[in-house]
Specification:
Radius of gyration: 19 Å
Shape: globular
Structural class: alpha/beta
Strand content: 5-15%
Number of helices: 13
Bound molecules: phenylalanine, fe (iii) ion
Helix content: 40-55%
Length: 284
């Protein structure tokens, strides 16, 4: 009954009104706990652009924020909007939203027993992880371009390549700064354990960003990454992805997938992983 009622409110583009009245006190408490924990963990670990975006959003730590309020701040800064969705949406829908500078955010929050890990994105991952960098003009433009590129990749049947780029930048990217390596990937900033692991563990590789290399590298789905790719700045990301990818896809079709833990002779290695404790299962 409840599931039916929820489904009825979903529009054809998968958006819905954020059902703020459905949040319980326990839901807001989960948000607060995750927020406070990450505020501590990300000091000296997240990049300045992320921290500035978070501060600029005034994302209340008091509870799950109202998306309308966030959209107001985003609109002023970069023209992005937040739209509520019931969960993961089809690729085409997702890309069309990004291309129109709308970021789909899952409205519900994880349960208290899922504080440390959750397989799907929830409101904490989507807001805390993704939205702060949408306050950054260059990163905002990158996300919009990615959406347009996603629609094209879908038509060409090459989404597998482009998806890896999203994974190794938007979700799990690291950035080199004068103060040292810092985190910008959403999958990392919304996870306490991976925030520490990606920078401080000797186990994973840390390799300089290389667009084509990344687009044929496998990845880990439900465990820590074996390799992280490091950009020198958001301009580098934007410039490297500006060309038309159509000829790149032709090249990539001829290349085998690189296992996620491998290091190539052509890699700019920042740290060669010790491989300690690496998950033995095959890549996703
Ligand atoms: N320039 C890419 C293309 O032509 C689109 C893109 C932009 C992809 C930014 C990823 C990130 O397909
Ligand atoms: Fe995400």
């Amino acid at each position: 009954m409840l599931a039916q009622a929820i489904r009825d409110e979903i529009r054809p583009d998968y958006t819905m009104d954020q059902p703020v009245e459905r949040y319980t006190a326990a839901d807001h408490a989960v948000w607060r706990q995750l927020f406070e924990r990450q505020a501590e963990t990300l000091k000296g670990r997240a990049c300045d652009e992320f921290l500035a975006g978070l501060a600029g959003l005034g994302v209340a730590k008091d509870g799950i924020p109202r998306f309308e309020r966030l959209t107001e701040a985003l609109m002023k800064a970069t023209g992005w909007q937040i739209v509520a969705v019931p969960g993961l949406v089809p690729d085409e829908v997702f890309f069309a939203h990004l291309a129109a500078r709308r970021f789909p955010v899952t409205w519900w929050i994880r349960k208290p027993e899922q504080m440390d890990y959750l397989q799907e994105p929830d409101v904490f991952h989507d807001i805390y992880g993704h939205v702060p960098l949408l306050m950054n003009p260059i990163f905002g433009d990158y996300m919009q371009a990615y959406g347009a590129g996603g629609l094209k990749a879908l038509k060409l049947g090459v989404l597998n390549y482009l998806a890896r780029l999203y994974w190794y930048t938007v979700e799990f990217g690291l950035i080199r700064t004068p103060k040292g390596l810092r985190i910008y990937g959403s999958g990392i900033v919304s996870s306490k354990t991976e925030s520490i692991y990606c920078l401080e563990s000797p186990a994973p590789n840390r390799i300089g960003f290389d667009l084509l290399r990344i687009m044929h590298t496998g990845y880990r789905l439900d465990t820590f990454q074996k390799s992280y790719f490091v950009i020198d700045g958001f301009e580098q990301l934007f410039e490297a992805t500006r060309p038309d990818f159509t000829p790149y896809y032709e090249t990539l079709r001829a290349l085998p997938q690189i296992p996620s833990g491998d290091i190539l002779l052509t890699d700019r290695v920042i740290h060669r992983g010790s491989r300690e404790g690496w998950d033995p299962r095959p890549d996703a």
